[in-house]
Amino acid sequence: MDFSKLKNFSAQSFSFDANFNILEETDDFIVIHKKNGIAVQVTDKETEDLETILNNKYPEKVHVLNRIDQPVTGLVIFGKNKKFAAAFTEMLKERTVKKTYLALVSGSPQSGPTELKHYIKKLHNRAMTADEPVDENFKVAVLVYTLLQSFDNYHLIKIDLKTGRFHQIRAQLATVEMPVKGDLKYGSRRPNLDRSIGLLSYKLEFEHPFTGKTHSYVSPLPQNDVLWGLVDLNLIS
Description:
Layout: E1 15-16, E2 20-25, E3 29-34, H1 50-57, E4 63-64, E5 73-79, H2 82-93, E6 98-105, E7 114-123, E8 126-130, E9 139-150, E10 155-161, H3 168-175, E11 199-207, E12 214-218, H4 226-229
């Protein structure tokens, strides 16, 4: 889906909310554009989350199929039935679902595609990385980033996520001294005013496990940071 042509779609094609937009809904899944600040799943009774909102809307339980952190903006997919959810989860394990992120980072990214491979362990509410698996709780984490554009103090990188670990992108980038803008938990020197971080779940591509149809979705860029407004759109095709 090309958001540069969003004006060509009818208003009936989209459901709008203060914290999220439903980009497409089929019999099997719902693709949502989540804004920063809302959780995908319940974190506490005081915080609104997408899973609870959708479960209050639909008669059958929805299934979370990918998660992005509360301060992150971008694409999330929910399954509307157990059959699709199970098939999509298997596709994730087989790495046939392509997930692409954009990030604003400090530090010194290398030019050209660069693979980062670490081992990650969830420790309370953050991730710990290591170069080798210290014990069975450390799981392999792999991503490939490409430098797209540089600003005065930050850089725009594209990230092809090969595995889906807890806080993977944030932790791996921090490990190589490239923390995400505004991400105090992983080494950023200052917060963003709205408590967001400069990480966007930008593109989601997969082949429907039953119909074989290819589905591709692209998130609009956030409007909460001046740097996103300086991005050269020709570089992020």
